[in-house]
Amino acid sequence: MQKEKRRKTVCLLALWLSAITVFAQYEVSGGKGEPLLAADNTLHRIRVYLVNGVEGLTLRYTSSTSSHRWFRYKTRASEAEPVASSRLGNTSTVDLPEEGYGYFVQDGDNYAMSNFIWIIDYSRRPVQIRNLRVSDSGEPCVALRLSGEDETAPLVYRTPGGTETVVRRQYEASYMTQVWNNDSKTFRPAMLIDTLDGDPLGQSLAPPLEDTDIQLSGDLFARHFGLEKMFATSFYQAIALEVHADTTILSNGGSNMQTGDSEILAPASVRFTAYGNTPVASLFIWQIYRSDDADRPLVRFTGAEVEYTFALVGDYTVRLEVSDRTGACSNTEYTWNIPVTETVVLIPNVFTPEGSPGVNDEFKVVYKSVIRFKASVFNRWGAELFSWTDPARGWDGKYRGKPVPAGPYFYVIEYTGTDGKTHKKSGDINVIRTTKSKTTKE
Length: 442
Description:
This protein is mainly β.
């Protein structure tokens, strides 16, 4: 099986090399500059050459025999007419052939086994575009289109079977734009070059992100002959937008803060930052609303960066809208869902200061989404031993720097939750000492 596959591969390669060799027997020379192979239609075994004028143009063919003959056709090879040629050994030459014809050499009586070349005088069909401008049609926020008057004659040839075929020209459209750098979070100016295959008018281009003129050069065949032309639009005021955004959650939670997946714990200060291709992107609008009431935004900010503190329980939506300076284009692709969890405050009833360092050695609450907080510890006579306002902190079981005796103490905790209400809790906290320590009377 493997030998059979290798034999097939070798045969295909031999046929391909044979085809290259046959085509290589044709030689096109003359005109101003080197003739250019513009199309290689392998399906119909025809190659299209562009020449810059026909002055001194010649076609040559070298065969293994001296009995071959030259023909040319205008519409199809079956209607070909003979062409006079001069011969030197096995090489024949056609001097000053006419452009706009297909030529081939026939060995024997069957033209269908021949390979063909078509000659086009490019100098007779230069690019002719007038009044290049940015089109008013289409979707200018997502694509740019050029318009104008294109009077360029097509580069046409016919296959041996008579099918009219056009060689597609190529152009280059160049203009300034902005390119986003994600590492530095900035836009930087850059030149954008788009290659346009075929008629450049009406084709879509990436819209520029800054004011610029659009230059059209070509076609690329003309560049080969040194005949390239340049066309330019008037200065174009950009309207397309490119927007990037990110968020930063500023949290003041401690090790005793209870967290869960996808939760935002209040009070949560969140910084929203937008980046756009300024000055085209000129108006930044942030709206924050409850997800079930999108018709009534809670707040509306303007500016590229805003910070908001979420203090009440609920699901929120943050929406960014960016508009260009003319109001023609807007970008609303950035939306965030902010689920703010309800308040939880869990209070232990015992702790062991100086027992196992780092393990239940402070009187701390376990909490989440606490907006305001105050806690105080009292002895049995009502004297305040310690108070704190940060729920992430706690009492270490000391009074004036010295450990208090084991036993019950009384706490009072007041806090405001994400429901907007103030809650009060009180009770006993028991100090248990597992090691001897010097205590002080409270």
